[in-house]
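The instructor's notes for this session suggest beginning with a concrete chain rather than abstract definitions. Hand out the sequence below and ask the class to guess, before any prediction is shown, which regions might be ordered.
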Amino acid sequence: MAAETPTIVLVHGAWADATGFDREIRALRQRGYTAIGFANPLRDLRGDATYLAEFLRTLTGPIVLVGHSYGGNVISVAATGNDQVQALVYFNGWMCDEGESQQELLERFEGSLVGPSVRPVPFTSPDGGEGADLYLDREAFHAAFAADVDAETAEVMAAAQRPYAAAAFAGAPSGPLAWKTLPCWYLLGTEDKAIPPALQRFMAERANATIVEVPASHVSFVSQPEAATQLILQAIEATSNSRT
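After discussion, reveal the predicted structure:
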């Protein structure tokens, strides 16, 4: 029996949106795949993961989930209990364990430029509660987030960055995680100044992920789109064969 063609769902992280996956989506579509750039709310880990999980239930057939940065935590939670998800792919992605926050891990591994670059902006939610959105300082964005992207493109990315709620940054997974049971692939950016490479390796090795290193900043999928696409294709091939 021939394997069904999977749908690839790409989930962006903080300070970004799904248009960052433009090159990967084009390349996958040219190969006959359905690729979807999911709009990650960036509000709260549990809520964001639930939002994605509900969307995934509207799809038919196998799914390959791809997550960049914070999107990695979102896919790890959202895929739990969904038998359609056959593989997880992380681009410089967070893979926190239960009860483990991004902040906690950043304090254990030196080298991130994100902390000093964050600029909080307070907001009032519809129910009257107070919160804060986190932005990256536009002057620091290039070095901290996208150092291997040309300056003009980085300036546009900084100007268009999506707000990342402090609640999402501080969130920690509170339930079972899909990376503990599903095959994983990890694109590790060795020049990342947001999530230190040593931290990326720690998380990827802990998950027994297949690791591919690229000399890239935090936005490896922007600066190294061919490597990112090939890693998705590798995950599709490996897991589709196992389902035939």
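Then share the key points. The mean pLDDT is 96. The chain has eleven helices and nine strands.
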